[in-house]
Structures are given as structure tokens and as C-alpha cells.
Design goal:
21% strand, globular, alpha+beta, Thrombin, subunit H, 5 strands, five-stranded antiparallel sheet
């Protein structure tokens, strides 16, 4: 169970802070909900306390792990399927895991592909989503402003492409 003030990750949305835990009666059923504030995008989510495990929620990484993620963004991209549909599905599965290293690798790979060959509209949205997720977690983990973290992440992604 999480507490008010805990910084957690909600897969596919990114990292946020639990602002409140409250009981709500929805569809005649009374349940406890986490009220999660997502600073990146200024979004609030109500998440049933009973569903956190199946949703893959977890605490955010620490500062050392954040440095490791930045290093991943600087590496050369890994192989992806040439087939758009297979690549999209594989990347979506990686994002859904909620594992920040998986999400960072998807961001790095899509960024490199965009520079090399361009991306479809769907993959461009996915690239933006992955960057937003990485920004949200790393900015909370390192207590860095969102815009500053986004700039750092883009610089790391650019660095990974310099060798190409």
C-alpha cells in the first residue's frame, strides 16, 4: 500500500505523486482510490487501491538508477523489426511493462529510426509518449524541472545518434 506523498509510476502514463487516498462510491460499490497527480501533463488519475498490482504500479527509481537510464538513452539503438506493425506491437508491449529501462530503450530506438528513416504518425505519437514517460519519472527521481529534464533527455538521444 502506498501513502500520500509517495512518488509512483503508472505504466503508459508515467510518474506522479499520490495526493490523496479517498473512498468513493462508484456504481454502487464503495472502494478506496489513490488520487495520483501527474506533473507532466498536469493530469489527475483515480486508481483503485485494489488494482495497483495488476496495473503494474511501482515506486519511482532513485537518482543512481536515473543516471543509468540516461546512459541507456546515449547508447546505439538495438535492432527492431522492419515491419511497422510488428515493431509497433513489440514497442507497445515494452511500454506496458512500466519498466523505465524498457521505455527508455523504445524512446532511443524510435528516435534513431526517426532520424534515419522517419516514423509513421502512430510511431511519432509513441515516441512522444515514451519521452514524456521518461521525463516524468526522471524529473521526479532527480528533483529536476520537467523542461530541464526533457532538454537533457533530448541531448542524450542526440548523442546516441552521433555515431550513426
Amino acid at each position: 500500500m502506498y501513502s500520500v506523498g509517495d512518488k509512483i509510476v503508472y505504466p503508459t502514463h508515467g510518474a506522479g505523486i499520490i495526493e490523496n487516498i479517498k473512498e468513493e462510491k462508484i456504481l454502487g460499490e464503495k472502494k478506496s482510490y489513490y488520487i495520483l497527480y501527474m506533473p507532466v501533463g498536469e493530469l489527475k488519475l483515480m486508481i483503485p487501491v485494489d488494482n495497483v498490482e495488476e496495473l503494474g504500479m511501482r515506486k519511482i527509481i532513485d537518482k543512481d538508477q536515473a543516471c543509468d537510464v540516461l546512459d541507456i538513452l546515449k547508447q546505439n539503438e538495438s535492432r527492431m523489426s522492419a515491419n511497422w506493425n510488428r515493431r509497433y506491437r513489440a514497442n507497445m508491449e515494452r511500454i506496458k511493462t512500466g519498466d523505465i529501462t524498457e521505455v527508455a530503450e523504445v524512446a532511443r530506438n524510435l528516435y534513431a529510426r526517426d532520424k534515419e528513416k522517419g516514423l509513421s504518425t502512430g510511431e511519432k505519437k509513441m515516441l512522444e509518449q515514451t519521452i514524456r514517460i521518461v521525463v516524468s519519472e526522471l524529473s521526479l527521481a532527480t528533483e529536476t524541472e520537467e523542461e530541464e529534464m526533457r532538454d537533457l533527455i533530448i541531448r542524450c538521444l542526440e548523442e546516441s545518434n552521433e555515431g550513426n
